[in-house]
Amino acid sequence: MLRFDCVDEAERAAGLDAAAAAVSRGGLVVLPTDTVYGLGADAFGREAVSSLLAAKGRGRSMPVPVLIGSWRTLEGLIERTTPQVRDLIQAFWPGGLTLVVRHVPSLRWDLGEGRGTVAVRMPLHPVAIELLGRTGPMAVSSANISGQPPATTADEAIAQLGGAAEVYLDGGACADAVPSTIVDCTGDVPVVVRAGAVGLEALREVLPLVQEPAGR
């Protein structure tokens, strides 16, 4: 297990090298994001994603989200960028909004039981963006054991995951420590399926018909 202080320029460079190498060989890494720390793997590595789920103690019924480092990357992953998806991306990416969309059927990945959909986000964090620029899309879930609080520092991630991750990129404490908002964009009307960093009022300023979570 390697840990790198990404506040230090030299350590950050070495850490990014080590993390990219680990991902390329199917290993797991912990990285800071603008919401909470994430446990990441190659999105197209079936065994790597299985290792991620095992490290968290999480089943396949909750597919692993995907982080991307650029808007252009999204075009190769999803079937169609609808006007609603485009408006939300322009308003909130990079940032704390995850969009559930239908992915291209030919993609050779296995993120869990997604039934043709993927939850995708572009984070607003320089370390995460630089790593994603090297690795391409990564399967990333919160860096914690399933059912436990998400890690907001590298120390918290290490305490929960230990040697399950090869590399820990320490970007300091998360500024807000609030998970991303998840909006399902697979239907005619976008629906919030998890409240989080982007509030309903802000979403409705962009798309007035966005529905709030069921039961509220």
UniProtKB/TrEMBL annotation:
The keyword Ion transport does not apply. One of its GO terms (molecular function) is L-threonylcarbamoyladenylate synthase. It is an enzyme of class 2 (transferase). GO terms for biological process: regulation of translational fidelity; tRNA processing. Its EC number is 2.7.7.87. SUPFAM superfamilies: YrdC/RibB. Keywords: ATP-binding, Cytoplasm, Nucleotide-binding, Nucleotidyltransferase, Transferase, tRNA processing. It catalyses: L-threonine + hydrogencarbonate + ATP = L-threonylcarbamoyladenylate + diphosphate + H2O. It is found in: Cytoplasm. It comes from the Bacteria. Its main location: cytoplasm. Gene3D superfamilies: DHBP synthase. Belongs to the SUA5 family. This is L-threonylcarbamoyladenylate synthase.
